[in-house]
Specification:
The complex is a heterodimer of chains A (344) and B (224).
Chain A: E1 4-5, H1 11-20, H2 26-37, H3 51-60, E2 61-62, E3 70-73, E4 79-84, E5 90-98, E6 101-105, E7 109-111, H4 120-123, E8 126-129, H5 132-140, E9 150-153, H6 163-174, E10 186-190, H7 194-203, E11 207-211, H8 217-223, H9 232-240, E12 250-256, H10 264-273, E13 280-285, H11 299-311, E14 315-318
Parallel strand pairs in A: 1-2, 6-9, 9-10, 10-11, 11-12, 12-13, 13-14
Antiparallel strand pairs in A: 3-4, 4-5, 5-6, 7-8
Chain B: E1 13-16, E2 19-23, E3 27-33, E4 43-47, E5 55-62, E6 67-73, H1 81-84, E7 92-95, E8 109-114, H2 119-126, E9 133-139, H3 148-155, E10 159-163, E11 171-173, H4 176-181, E12 191-196, H5 198-210, E13 218-222
Parallel strand pairs in B: 8-9, 8-12, 9-10, 10-11, 12-13
Antiparallel strand pairs in B: 1-7, 2-3, 3-6, 4-5, 4-7, 5-6
The chains are: A alpha/beta (344), B alpha/beta (224).
């Protein structure tokens, strides 16, 4: 039976574990400090624990920390890291440096269940959930860890379909006992899993990004099967029922598909459905993937779309495509080729 | 361990199990009182208490007045299905209001399902929407053609059974995608409704597109 990993446990979870081991309760805080403040990788580095305790932990647990097994570097400086999960599956993580902003894009699942038409991760199907520790390991084991300014949960998987582990990882990232990052610097992206959205909004102070991609419900159905379960109108009603006027930000992601969602009627409808929601709209280029007959809108169209939305009072930006040459850009992450790879 | 972040953010209503029937090699049909109106094809959330996250299931049957039914099979790693499988008549259960937009109409269409993904098409057929429809249903074992007799009677030769493991009479040996692949042509001007696991939906969608079906004619419901 595989040993349990301790990295990624909350203090309460660590307290339960140390109690079961008949260790003093303060051992839990010591473990949290070693993992989240002092960034040790091995139990034998935890020098304020006795040798016996360190051996006990070594015998019964693993840290759960793993190093990336491969890195690809883009011409634009973006790096894509490959990690092996504790179940022997593979995930990708993108590190996107830009001037004084260094963003890490983390994955929350191996593959994805949601079947969005424009996403390469969808094409590999779903192979498993990541634990909070495996989500956090992407941060902790990053060689550029100390440079990270922002974290986005926009990698492989739908974070709110792995709600418990996503929320635990956010707690550890933002808590004083953990990485102590400001929630303002963290954004979780969702395609609109309403129950998960409500829990996230009520229990976290991080930012939320919602994948929109079409303001017309019937069109959105064809791009995103989730529309059949949680229609956009209900997603927006849910958002409207919360206050986003303070520090927490709500943004909408809109991939621009040529001839599909980049017309004047789309601008008009987008403005109508988002009316009254204080938000930012991020326009993204579509990055072509095999077997999907969609194309990105032309740059001139994307810029026009942005200007039209701005003229209607919406804060709108065009997200730069980064890491396209190494397939690290939005919608390109995939470990499909590694699905049958034997692990050591 | 109970979840600290469970999905209590869904409004759920107490009710009880009217009956629990086994079907096929590992299918379960549970019947509950019909608390709310619904559209054929919609789903509802089920749970047993406020510590278990609500999970979504397609409504599979109803008399449209007194009861509705849900079809599921047990996922060994699942949080809810192992517990649902133990329910007996009279046991308490919680249900959300039906929701969702995976609904068909009278227009000709192909219904393509794998395993318990046949559930929404069963209720659509119950509602009389079976005219001008083809159903392609894929299973592993031939005893898992849920509602087989019903569809044979309702759809006749428009009901295609695909069985990947058994060599069963009147079944195509292979998966749904194997069946579709060997079809010479598919009508391009009708809708294709897909329901099943993510892998099945994605593979089938890609295959339909490769056979000249526009993605705009493909409507999918993925089980998650």
């Amino acid at each position: 039976m595989q040993k349990q990993a301790l990295f990624g446990k909350t203090p309460d979870e660590l307290k339960t574990i140390v109690k079961q081991l008949n260790l003093p309760a303060f051992t839990a805080k010591q473990l949290a400090d070693w993992f989240y403040k002092k960034h040790v990788s091995r139990f034998d580095e935890m020098t304020n624990l006795s040798k016996e305790v360190r051996q006990l932990l070594e015998d019964q647990f693993i840290t759960g920390l793993t190093e990336p097994i491969k890195v690809q570097v883009s011409v634009d400086g973006t790096k894509k890291y490959l990690y092996r999960s504790l179940q022997g599956k593979y995930i990708e993580t993108a590190y996107i440096p830009e001037n004084d902003r260094h963003t890490l894009c983390v994955s929350t699942q191996v593959g994805c269940k949601m079947g969005c038409f424009f996403c390469m991760t969808a094409k590999q199907g779903f192979q498993g959930q990541l634990t909070a520790g495996e989500i956090l390991n992407q941060i902790r084991s990053l060689p550029e860890r100390d440079l990270i300014t922002n974290i986005v949960y926009m990698g492989m998987g739908e974070p709110l379909d792995n709600l418990d582990e996503t929320m635990k990882s956010l707690e550890i990232i933002t808590s004083d006992y953990g990485f102590a990052m400001s929630p303002k610097r963290i954004t979780v992206s969702t395609i609109g899993i309403i129950p998960g959205m409500k829990t996230f909004i009520e229990k976290s102070r991080c930012n939320l990004a919602v994948s929109l991609h079409s303001p017309f419900e019937e069109d959105r159905k064809k791009l995103m099967p989730i529309q059949n379960v949680y229609p956009l109108s209900e997603v927006l009603d849910t958002i409207r029922s919360y206050d986003f006027s303070r520090q927490r930000r709500i943004s909408f992601e809109y991939i621009m598909f040529k001839g599909l969602n980049d017309t004047p009627r789309h601008v008009k409808e987008l403005a109508r459905v988002l009316n009254g929601i204080r938000c930012r709209i991020n326009l993204l280029r579509f990055h072509p993937i095999p077997g999907t007959p969609l194309q990105s809108s032309e740059n001139i169209t994307i810029e026009w779309f942005r200007d039209e939305l701005k003229s209607k009072g919406f804060m709108t930006t065009i997200r730069q495509s980064r890491g396209q040459d190494i397939e690290a850009a939005c919608g390109m992450l995939s470990t499909k080729e590694l699905l049958n790879k034997k692990t050591d | 361990m109970p979840s600290d972040y469970n999905c209590t953010a869904v409004d759920i209503y107490p009710t009880h199990v009217i009956s629990h029937t086994l079907t096929g090699s590992h299918g379960h049909l549970i019947r509950l009182p019909m608390l709310f109106p619904f559209k054929p094809g919609q789903v509802a959330g089920l749970t047993l208490n406020d510590t278990i996250p609500v999970r979504i299931y397609s409504i599979a049957g109803s008399d449209f007045k007194n009861w509705i039914e849900f079809l599921f099979d047990v996922k060994s790693q699942g949080v809810l299905t192992p517990k649902l499988a133990e329910l007996k008549a009279g046991d308490r259960i919680f249900m959300s209001k039906p929701f969702g937009t995976f609904v068909a109409d009278e227009r000709p269409a192909y219904w393509i399902a794998a395993g318990t993904g046949v559930a929404p098409f069963k209720i659509m057929a119950d509602a009389g929407l079976y005219v001008n429809k083809y159903l392609i249903h894929g299973v592993g074992e031939s005893k898992d053609f849920y509602f087989r007799e019903y569809f044979e009677e309702t759809l006749g030769e428009n009901y295609i059974k695909c069985c990947s493991r058994d060599n069963s009479k009147d079944c195509f040996k292979g998966r749904v995608t194997n069946y579709i692949e060997q079809l010479p042509a598919l009508p391009a001007d009708i809708n294709y409704y897909l329901c099943g696991s993510a892998e099945m939906v994605i593979e089938t969608r890609d295959l339909l597109i490769s056979k000249g079906i526009s993605f705009e004619n493909i409507i999918a419901e993925i089980y998650f």
